[in-house]
Amino acid sequence: MGIIESQNKGVRAYSECARICQERISTHPEQAAAYYLLKIAANRFVDVYDDQPLVSTIADNEFLNFKSYVDQLDASEQEADPTKKLDTLNRIASKIANHKILRSDV
Questions:
Q1: At what angle do helices 32-49 and 11-27 cross, to 10 degrees?
Q2: pLDDT of 54-94, one tens digit each?
């Protein structure tokens, strides 16, 4: 999350985040599914906003969505029950799949 915040929640920050998630899929195989979901969410942001202006209110809202995914996945890692971990992964996957990223009207 620090990368995204330090780069003002811009497209390049999400691109870097997706790259890091891809690396961690290999280096942290026990969390591969979580990193894969975050990579998908980051890449969707990049795909939508790479070719257009990004309004700060949209950037802030998308950041809060992405942060909620990270926070929930992080909390599930502390969970001892594998069923609860899987439920969290499925819930986040559904949220990412159904999230409508709004394009700027600029």
A1: 160
A2: 899 999 999 999 999 999 999 999 999 999 999 999 999 99
- CA 9 – CA 72 distance, rounded (Å): 20
Q: How far is residue 40's CA from residue 46's CA, in Å, rounded to a whole number?
A: 10
Q: What is the DSSP letter of 78?
A: T
Non-local (6+) Cβ contacts of 99 within 8 A are 41, 44, 65
Total length of the chain: 106
Q: Find, among 105, 104, 72, the residue nearest to 88 by Cα.
A: 72
pLDDT bracket for residue 50 (50, 70, 90): very high
* Cβ atoms of residues 88 and 76 within 8 Å: yes
Find out whether 19 and 43 touch, Cβ atoms under 8 Å.
Answer: no
Q: Say what the pLDDT of residue 105 is.
A: 65
Other CB atoms within 10 Å distance of the CB of residue 64: 10
